[in-house]
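WARN retry 2 of 3 for item q-0093 after timeout on previous attempt; input resubmitted unchanged.
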Amino acid sequence: MSAPAPLTALLDPRAIAVVGASDKPNKLGQAMMQSLRGYGGAVVGINPAGSRDMFPDLDAARRVHPALDLAVLCVPAPAVPDALRQCGASGVAAAVVCAGGFAEIGAAGQAVHDDLVAAVAETGVRLLGPNTSGFFRPGARLFASFVPGVGELGSGSVGIVAASGGVNHALAFQLDRIGAGVSTGVGLGAAIDVTAVDVLHHLADDPQTRAVALHLESVPDGPGLLAAVRRVVEVKPLVALVVGKNDISEFAQSHTGSLATAWSTTRALLREAGAVVVDSEIELVNAASALTAVRAAPRPRAGVGLVTGQAGPGLIIADELSTRGVDVPRVAPATKERLTELLPPLTFLDNPVDTGRPGPTFADVLATVGGDEGVDVLGVYSIVEPVASLPDALATAALTIPVVVAVDGHGRAVEDVRAAAAGQVPVLVGPTALAQGLHAITADAHARSMRTPAPAQAAGPRLHDAAAWAGSAWSEARAKDLLDALGVRTPRRAVCADLAEARAAFEKLGPSVAVKVLDPAVLHKSDIGGVHLGVASEADLDRAIAALERIGAPAFLVEEMAPGGVDLLLGARIDPVFGPIAVLGVGGVATELWDDTAICSLPAPPPVVRALPGQLRSEPLVDGYRGGPVLDRDELVRVVDALTEALLSDAGIQEIEINPLRVGTDGLVALDAVVVAVPAEERAEEKVE
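OK item q-0093 returned
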C-alpha cells in the first residue's frame, strides 16, 4: 500500500495564518497567536475587524506571504466550511480546525459536518480536526495549540498520534517530565481528513522520531491502519493504547466516533502488525521512552538481566516481568563466579543481581551481567545515592545491548541522573516503570521475530463450486457438510425427521450417540435444552426425542459420540473494520466466561497460526496437561486454511464457528459448527452498488 499524500504543509509549513485571530484576551484566536509566536516562519492574523497588523482575508495575506501553507481556523463551527473553501481558493494547502459542534453533538451539527466533508473533497486541503486542540513540533518551536504550557515542551524523540487532543497533550507533558520529550504530537479529533494512518506514514519518515506512541479510540480503516503500523515498525518501534475494554460506547459516540469492532480484535491485530500493545497511558509513556534506546535484536524470547541496588524493588520488577511472561534467565556459571569476586556474600548473585548498595564495583557488575550469554536487554534500578554515579558506571561498562534505567530519589537527584545520562539511556522512575520499559523492548523484539509479509487477499472464489453453498439457511448438518467438503473431520451423523429415523440412525451409529435439535434458527442449542449427549439405549433415545419435540424441534441430528479430549473454539469471520480474521479460544459453553482468545488476520501464514495457541492462558491444556492430548499445530494450520477458503469464497459466508473443536489423541474433530451467511438478495444488491 502506498503512503498517503504528504503532510508537509500541515506539519512543516513555511508560513501560517490564524483565521479568526483576535487582540482580545480569552479568545481562541488570541491564544493561538500567542502560542505560535515563537515559530521561525511568518505567522499572520486574519480578521476583517482586527487590528492593522492583521489581514482582512487570506488572499490579502497570500499577496504578502506567498509561502502561506497552513491556516489555523479559530472560527465557530458553522463558519468553518466556507473558511476552508477560502483556503482552497487562496492556495493554502492545509488547515487545522479546533472548534467543536459538528457530528459529535448529533443532528444539530450533522449538516455542518457534512458541509465540511464536502469542502475537503472540493478543495483538496489537508484538514486536521475538527474538535482537536491541535498539534506541536517542539524542535521547530511550532505549537499550533491553545493548551496552556504547551510552549514549554522540550524537543525529544517520541512521536505521538492520539485520537484525542487532550490525550496528545497529556502524553506530551508526561514524556517531557521523564526526559524522553516529543518530536511531533498530533491530536486527531474527529479526523474528517487527516487520520492516524496519515500521521503514522509521516512519522515513519521523520528522522527525529525514534519511537511512536499511538492512542486509538476508533478505527475507520482497519487494513490501512495495519499497513501503516507495519511500515513504521520496519524502521522504529511503535507502542499502542486502545480504548474500549469496557462498555463506554455512548461516551465515545459523543466524543470522536464509535468503537466499531471488538477491543480485543484491535489489540490482537495491532500486535500481529508489530506494535507493542499496552494497557494504560502511563505504560504507553514508559514503554515509548524505553524504546527510544537501541532496539533489541529480533528474537522470539529476549532474555532480560536485572541489576538492582536494593532487593525489595528488585523483587517487584522481577515479579512484574514474570507476570508478563518476560524471560529473566539465570546467569551462566562463569558470570556468577565473576560476580562473587565483585560483590559481598550477603547479596543475591543470580538474576536479578542485588548489589546490596551501588559501590565502587558497580560498573564491573553492569558489564558482567550485560555480557552474559543469556542477557539481551539490561535493566538497572537504584535509589540515587552519592556512593556511585549510575551514569558514570554505565559509561564505564560500555555495554553493547539495550539498557533501561529506573531510579528513585529526591526530584533534583533524579533530574541530575537524567541529565548525566544525556539521552543516551532512557531513565524512568520506579520499579514498575522499569518493568514496563523492559517488557516493551522484549515485546518489540518478539514482534519483529514473527514478522511475515502482509497477507494478500485472494481474488475470486476459493471454495470448489462455491455457488452451490450460497444461501442463508445453515443448519448444523449443512455446516458440517461444508466442513467435510473442506477436509475438516466431523463425526458420522444422520439427519432424522422423526423417531423411527432416529432409531435407525442409532442402530447404525451407536453404541452411544448425541441427539440434537436441528434448526437453522437456533444457534445456541444448549441454552434451550437442545442437546442430549451419551444416549446409549433405545429408551434414552426415545426420551431425548420427546424432549426435543417439546421445544419444537423441526428435525433431529443423531451423530456418534466423539472420544474425550480438550475443547477449543475456532472461528473465522469478516470483521466490519479489519476484514477476515480468525479467533481461537477455549471451547464449550464457557467461551465467553473465560475470555481466553487469540486472534489473527486472514489469510494467515503458517507461523502465525502455529503461534496462536501460545497466546492462550489455557495453552497447557492442549500440550499434554496431565497426560491429555497434544494439539498438532500443523493440523490447526490446515483447518484454519480450510475456513479461510470458505470465508474468501463467493458463497456469501460471513462467519464460520466450530465450537467445540475437540483436540483428541487422534487429531482434531469438529463437534458443532455454525455458519452465518449473507442472504442472496442482499449479495445481489451489494454487487449492483
